[in-house]
Amino acid sequence: MSGSALSPWASVRDPSGHAFDVATQLDCPVPNDLFSHYEKLLQCLRKRINLMFLKVHLKTSKFQLAVGPSIDGVTIKPDWKNHQSKMGKEGRTPVDLLLGMTAANLLDILSQQEVQEGFDADYREVLLRSFAVSNYRYNLQEIMLAITAEYTDWSRSLHRPISIRDSTGQGLHDANIVSPITDIAKQLCTTSRSSYLYVLEEEVSDSGNESLLLNELVYVFGGPLGALVDITLSKSFISMWSNFIKLG
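User: That's the sequence. What structure does it adopt?
Assistant: Structure tokens below.
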């Protein structure tokens, strides 16, 4: 739902760096070789209370996570993408598949102010540069130019903040969610089982009677508590997801 293991945000790039930051902020000893001698660090961290962890600040770019899975060579191997691709080719995933996404949700990418007011071309360049640096090593300028050219609506004013917001948000949504979902669907779909792809474009109403696009997880977990249609849709999601898990 709304992404896959192929999403650029699905794994942590520098877990040892974040471990060092946590240890430093909680005044715990950091071994020279964090991978081989982490016992003392673990013992120290386990003595800290929960509230202390909540105050830890981990620095990441706008398009990366600080906490999540990492390619550690043990649980997740460096060549995990090859193994995943083979699963589909060799028919080693016999269960039916349900994959999908929401329509572009700018609130997942941009701040509330950026969503409301839009932004200019200079800030778009800052966003795209941050995305490129976070996910690519080479040809960054060419990648930025390609994204800008692909996601510029030439039929609208090129200088309108709202127009720039919409096209930039769509590009980032495609890169972070749509493309990873599409790629994994191509890898895992076979003729030996059924596969389904959905796109959710529904908006839910908050307490202020304003419409917000939300991740489908909110519906699956019964989150909407506003208008009757939101509750009905949420119940439908729960029923469909449950039946799919039980029956395919």
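The longest strand covers residues 97-102.
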